[in-house]
Amino acid sequence: MCGDLGGNTVARSASIEGGGGGMDGQHSRRTFLNVATAALTVGAAAVALPGTASASPARRRVPLEKISIQLYSLRSLLQNDPEGTLSALADIGYRKVELAGTYGRTATEFRAILDRCHLEASSTHVGIDGDLNQAIADAKVLGNRSIVVPYANFGTIAEWEAFAGRMNTAATAFKKAGLKLGYHNHDHEFAPIGGVVPYDVLTAKTDKRLVHLEIDLFWAVNGGADPVELFRRNYPRVTQYHVKDRTADGQMVDPGAGAIDFPRIFAASCHTIREFIVEHDQPADPLNTAKVGFEYLRTVRF
């Protein structure tokens, strides 16, 4: 669902669980594809100047409760002052964060800081080749609803296929614990190996009912992929976005300061995205990036 300018919600034709059998499922999927195809015609390129004119007035917005930030962006501050940093994020307006470690604190200690700052850690980045039981236990303490694999890289398609199998095994264990498993991309997943694209292997070989996709929009564009096409091809598995911007010459910048056409992407996909997560891998001023990103997502219309 996406918010309109009045703060209400606009129901979309296809839900995150949609695409099922029967006439209703078929009609819902046809309706979604028609909507997404129409949105695709607004801008054919994955990278365009922000504010490109659209075919209809921009009325939708990102609901405030769906705005989050990946704490990796603030790692330089969190190591020494987690409470002050998280309190500053709450003052900016954030109510959700995505974790990438607990910075020398136990899960219990970090959860207490989150609670004092009135922040929810809805998801966390964790690998699946370690102790799954410990990952599950920590996620439960932290209040996570999902666990996202932050990085994987292999030199052969056979290794990517084997990794997909491990993802399915882990996802089954996480589901039993009430958690969802996702995968976060970089750009190398879109570089063919022997003519085969690893991202296609990963999405084909993982169970779409168990493994969702967190698309990092900077890295997807950097790898030559069109985020709207990725969303359409993998519907309804894409439920999280990492919102980081890219200049035309490939520099990473704060959201809204580059050339990625976020309104085009959001217009085509906002009905199944549950988190829009601000991120910058190497910010010069982490808290300023956090503020700029929040304000961009709060004010962007599509």
Automatic annotation (TrEMBL):
Classification via Gene3D superfamilies: Divalent-metal-dependent TIM barrel enzymes (3.20.20.150)
Keywords in alphabetical order: Isomerase
Protein name as annotated: Sugar phosphate isomerase
Species: Amycolatopsis bullii
SUPFAM superfamilies for the chain: Xylose isomerase-like
PANTHER family (UniProt xref): HYDROXYPYRUVATE ISOMERASE, INOSOSE DEHYDRATASE
InterPro entries reported for this sequence: IolE/XylAMocC-like (IPR050312), TAT_signal (IPR006311), Xyl_isomerase-like_sf (IPR036237), Xyl_isomerase-like_TIM-brl (IPR013022)
Domain Xylose isomerase-like TIM barrel as annotated: residue spans: 88-268
One Pfam short name: AP_endonuc_2
Molecular function GO labels: isomerase activity
Coiled-coil residue spans: none
